[in-house]
Amino acid sequence: MLAQAIELLRDRSLPMLIEQEIERVILGGEYAPGDKINEQALALRFGISRGPIREALRSLDRTGLIDTIPNRGVFVRRLTAAQAAEIYDVRAALFALAGQCLAIRASAADVERLRGHVAAMDEAVARDDFETYITENFALHEAIVTRAGNATLATHYLALVKQLRLYRTRNLMLADSVQASNEEHREMVEAIAARDPARAYAAHFNHVATAKIRLMANHLT
Amino acid sequence: MLAQAIELLRDRSLPMLIEQEIERVILGGEYAPGDKINEQALALRFGISRGPIREALRSLDRTGLIDTIPNRGVFVRRLTAAQAAEIYDVRAALFALAGQCLAIRASAADVERLRGHVAAMDEAVARDDFETYITENFALHEAIVTRAGNATLATHYLALVKQLRLYRTRNLMLADSVQASNEEHREMVEAIAARDPARAYAAHFNHVATAKIRLMANHLT
DNA sequence: ATTTTGCAGATTGTTGACATTCTTCAGATG
DNA sequence: CATCTGAAGAATGTCAACAATCTGCAAAAT
């Protein structure tokens, strides 16, 4: 127990842990976009002083999850539809690059793993198990991005996805759109399996571009 | 004078100013990659306490300019050749997107401005004025990225360029490579002027990809 | 001779207190 | 009645001191 706690703090400082925790709180929806974040309240909640809290907030600010206004405080970032669209465009470019890279260097194990995620999503759709679908969906995207062999790419991509979680519309994925989305996944994975970089690039770009359109259409309702 | 200082602090807090200053010191080469950054020394240098210094460092850490090792301190980030190559690949993808976007929405004034930068670089090359060339070169890239109409894209692109400044090889641009580079600039700008997104995308991507090759070749010498 | 141990100094981590700024709202003013 | 003024309370900004950890080196042990 103690050894575990020590191990935890070996390369994770208190501000880093606090940052992770505040991020969880924000993305978990406990604070809504636009809400003010009170330093004292957080310090009290975690039983520490305001110093580490402030350090964590400076980091979250750079991550794009909060807005800091001097002498006014920090607020959960509020994304406009236009900003969300911007982020989707950048994300599409990065994801396409990831797909292209992975199509070049993917191992047989990589391909097998990706196919596993697609199959799991197929089953989840059949079972109307949306929770599993969402988990597997993220796992597939993360696997593609982290196995692409470019850590910088992965970092920036994941930062964008985090920011997008601040843009919560009625995010109820319609059953048929989910199925269509997984067809796109299949094309992505098969392009990678075929070791076809151009095809993978197109499939990955198209997937995010389509997701953007779906989201924007959803936004109008 | 006072009013100016007050105005400066209106939406720029002390930690933000300090962050900018530390960044300047790092990118200015005063600290070399791998060097340890002493909090106390910085606090003394700026005549403030360590609190704001630490906040600035947490932000710089997320920016990717420093590495933080708990209980050991912060160090100027050291980029390997492989990491620099990674960053170039991501940068190429983002810059290509910027070129594509700008080709769609550029105003006549935008095109004129871009052509002005290219012309200034032509003149600088003729005069062997490398300093001006570098300034204009950055100005052109920044103009393209900020006028592309996607703030997220600009933010991430500029962050990558900042990181690349940590990778200093013998960065003496050879005279003919500079001229070749400006020919690429001309093609980029003319593609934008022609309002041809696909051509602009290709020209911008090619420019960064070529720059990467030049840098990597340079690295082997 | 090599490794280990154990200080002493230096550096990072954290805290609580104080200074400054902002927010709120009641009361005054036109 | 609307607007302005200004004090009280609360929140952010900064600091200096203390605690915990690391580094370097000398002395001891194998």
3D architecture notes:
2 copies of one chain form a homodimer. By secondary structure, chain A is mainly α. Helices cover 73% and strands 5% of the residues of chain A. Chain A contains 10 helices and 3 strands; from the N terminus they run ααβααββαααααα. A 3-stranded antiparallel beta sheet of chain A has the order 1-3-2. In chain A, helix 6 (108-126) runs antiparallel to helix 7 (130-146) and helix 9 (175-193) packs antiparallel against helix 10 (197-220). Chain A is globular and about 55 Å long. The N and C termini of chain A lie far apart (51 Å). Chains A and B meet through helix 4, helix 5 and helix 8 of A and helix 4, helix 5 and helix 8 of B. Chain A binds a DNA duplex (30 and 30 nucleotides) through helix 4.
One letter per element, helices H and strands E, the order of chain A comes to HHEHHEEHHHHHH
Mean pLDDT of chain A: 91
User: Structural class from helices and strands of chain A?
Assistant: mainly alpha
For the record, give the distance between the C-alpha atoms at the N and C termini of chain A, rounded to a whole number: 51 Å
Radius of gyration of chain A: 19 Å
Return the domain count of chain A. 2
Shape call of chain A: globular
In short:
Two copies of one chain form a homodimer. Chain A is mainly alpha-helical.
SSE blueprint:
The structure is a homodimer of 221-residue chains.
Chain A: H1 2-8, H2 14-27, E1 36-37, H3 39-46, H4 50-63, E2 66-69, E3 73-76, H5 81-105, H6 108-126, H7 130-146, H8 151-164, H9 175-193, H10 197-220
Antiparallel strand pairs in A: 1-3, 2-3
Chain A binds a DNA duplex (30 and 30 nucleotides) through helix 4.
